[in-house]
Amino acid sequence: MKYKKTIASVLTAVMAMLTISGCNLHVIENSKSPDSTSSNGSAVQSSESSKNSTPETTSQSDEITPTVWKVTDENGNYIYMMGSIHAADSSIKNLPGYFETAYSKCDSVAVEIDITEYSSNLNSAVDTIKKLSYTDGTKIYDHIPKETYDKLTAILTEHNLYNKLYDNYKPAMWLSLMENVIINESGFDIENGLDNIVLKRAHKENKNILEIESMDLQLGLFDEFSDELNALILQQYADDKNIKAQSDAIKELYENWKHGKLNEENVNGENSGEQETSITEKEKEMLEEYNDKTLIQRNINMAEKAEEYMQSDSVVLFIVGSAHFYGDDGILQLMKDKGCTVTVLTEKDAENLTSSEQPSNNSAEPSETLSAA
After folding, report:
1. Which sequence spans correspond to the domains of the chain?
2. Are 43 and 31 in contact (CB under 8 A)?
3. Which residues partner with 208 through β-bridges?
């Protein structure tokens, strides 16, 4: 029984990692180095959480208006796009009419990874756990500073999430465990993540599921990082004040997502005003490497996939982490660079878009055109 409980807890951490998978972790430059005695603010942001419920039309009493885009190429081919929030509360179920219309029109739902399919396959999950384990006889504390390890285990123990078995796991798993702490602190649940909700609904309604990335690709990202970089990232979690700050940041991010107010600054955790620059040039280079591999390069690949889907014979609803869409390196700008027009759907479109609309060359015009990503 104890063994089964341990496996279950590890699988929960793996599932959290898959929903997070680097796409919502954004390091800012006011972090301390891994061996610092204290941390200077939250260096990692996450956009996750929530419970399992089926999307339904919004009510006036609990209005929720996240952004849904329609991206159209020069030939009239189009795709629907939406940034995901990977954990939330139950209010996420009240999705608006324009989302419902776009969802009902789509033949396929494209996501980073089909986490619902993965969670039902124990063999795949156990295989992933093996990939996240050290095979050379070393432990996590052989790869990160002892002070960081001690602080992380203390926080996990305080939240009843530590198990000695975790010492066998690589930093990616520890990153996920600490994200679990933050999500729990926020009161959110990954079961309420938008991608999780939509995927369960799509499976039930027999829509085609497209995986934009692969399990090996996402897990492989973390193996590419040096021990120094992994230690630098994990250090940002080794402080109770950071846990609270990041929990508050998740809640604020969800409120912005829920009301269609996400932008490059708040989705990436950037604050206005002056920021302290208490990291070395080497650490800055490492963090730039982290953001390049977990965000920028993946954005390029995702935009290429979106273009491929647009030119297919089916209507696709494209849902990935919200952080992938914004900024000069974001998916929206990359699609514009390809000559596409990006428009924001509104409730007017819920009335105007009909099921008779064809997947290419024939589209009702959404109401609001974006002038910038």
Report:
1. 2-369
2. yes
3. 108
